[in-house]
């Protein structure tokens, strides 16, 4: 009886003219990566965040999302690349960004505002106001991705209620994914939950570790832990049990009010 390898070879030869390499697996895609500027995180991601794709950084407040993003933008602007930050909740602190090494002349900061903010605040109007900010952020992100010219774009949804973030249509994320791939832009989405679903190439979970104090009143350093929840361009065995890395930062405390 012929072996399984011999049978497979016969089948492939018979189908070669109609279906070339019908039974051969597709080669693994090697994605270009952009360094985050944090050695431990770059090692976890095999070089950095994927270029031309969506990466999500998920975690609660003060989990290190903003610190990681600022380190990434600092690495990009140090190479002379232009970046953008779409600030849904108007929470970014430019001084903290500069302290983290971001070259501010190369950073476009878009602050989402509401013209009706002076009206009395009610529970129903607060919900409409937040959704209005989210709508502005999504439209702005879409415009910047379509225009191109940005090496990295941060969509900060950290202050958005996860219930509202889940209302973002999947078609929107698919359009963002296609535009990021076409313009070779790294789209980094910050949020309390994962919103992009299958359109995200990488999903990272952030959590805070113990802070280090200098004396009794001075905070000198804060530690964070980062784990890889999912990554499309990796081996299956690594997806089942993603590793975690710890890293720390001694700057940009003001930015963590939104992180």
Care to describe what's here?
With 259 residues, the chain is of the alpha/beta class. It has a single domain, classed as Rossmann fold (3-Layer(aba) Sandwich). It is built from eight helices and ten strands. The strands form two sheets. It has an eight-stranded mixed beta sheet with strand order 5-4-6-7-3-8-9-10, sandwiched between helices. Strands 1-2 form a two-stranded antiparallel sheet. The longest helix has 25 residues. It is globular, with a radius of gyration of 22 Å. The C terminus is likely disordered.
The portion of residues assigned to helices is 25-40%
The major sheet is characterized as: 8 strands, mixed
Amino- and carboxy-terminal Cα gap: 64 Å
Based on helices, strands and strand pairing, what is the structural class?
alpha/beta
The overall number of domains is 1
As laid out across the biggest beta sheet, the strand order is 5-4-6-7-3-8-9-10
The CATH superfamily title: P-loop containing nucleotide triphosphate hydrolases
CA radius of gyration: 22 Å
Order of helices and strands: HEHEEHEHEHEHHEEEHE
Quick gist of this model?
The protein is α/β, with parallel strands linked by helices. It contains eight helices and ten strands. β8 (200-214) and β9 form a beta hairpin.
Task: Give the helices and strands, then pairings.
Elements lengths: L3 H12 L17 E2 L4 H6 L4 E2 L3 E5 L6 H14 L4 E5 L6 H6 L7 E5 L11 H25 L4 E6 L4 H4 L4 H14 L2 E6 L8 E15 L3 E14 L4 H5 L3 E6 L10
Parallel strand pairs: 3-7, 3-8, 4-5, 4-6, 6-7
Antiparallel strand pairs: 1-2, 8-9, 9-10
Helix pairs in contact: 5-7
